[in-house]
Design brief:
The protein is an alpha+beta fold and about 130 residues long. The protein has one domain: Alpha-Beta Plaits. It contains five helices and seven strands, in the order αβαβαβββαββα. Strands 2, 3, 4, 5 and 6 form a five-stranded antiparallel sheet that branches. The two termini are about 35 Å apart. InterPro entries: Ion_tolerance_CutA, N-reg_PII-like_a/b, N-reg_PII/ATP_PRibTrfase_C. Belongs to the CutA family. This is Divalent-cation tolerance protein CutA. GO terms for molecular function: copper ion binding.
């Protein structure tokens, strides 16, 4: 077998879809930050301290919302946090400590499926002592 030939066992493992029931313990937490510096700090802490397997920061975008009876608009950095349902409460507690907003956005969404290897990697990353 040449070096250029793909390893079909490895490729199959990476593309294997996790059954929906197996993926349900993986969640995405959506949030935002008022600036990139704080978003990076939040991401760094959540990953380094094993609250999250991965944190994605998006480009700044305009958020429009009502706050204390007035229409507000602010540029914010979107944050997507990948973790498990078991770790979600601790993630939200840590996020609230790090966040300057009185009411920071924290929405927990279930992952209804995904690649089996990625789902397992997320689980391992947020299990203290296992990553």
């Amino acid at each position: 077998m040449s070096d250029a030939t793909p390893d079909t066992d490895s490729t199959a493992s990476r593309s294997q879809a996790a059954p929906i029931t197996d993926a349900c313990d993986v969640v995405l937490i959506l949030s935002n930050a008022p600036d990139l510096m704080l978003a990076k700090r939040i991401a760094h802490i959540l990953v380094e301290e094993h609250y999250a397997a991965c944190v994605n920061l998006g480009p700044a975008g305009l958020s429009m919302y009502m706050w204390q009876g007035s229409l507000e608009g602010a540029d914010e950095i979107p944050i997507t946090i990948k973790t498990t349902a078991a770790r979600a409460p601790a993630v939200m507690e840590k996020l609230a400590q790090l966040h300057p907003y009185e009411v920071p956005e924290m929405l927990v969404l279930p992952a209804v499926g995904g690649s089996a290897s990625y789902i397992e990697w997320v689980r391992m990353q947020v299990t203290p002592g296992e990553a």
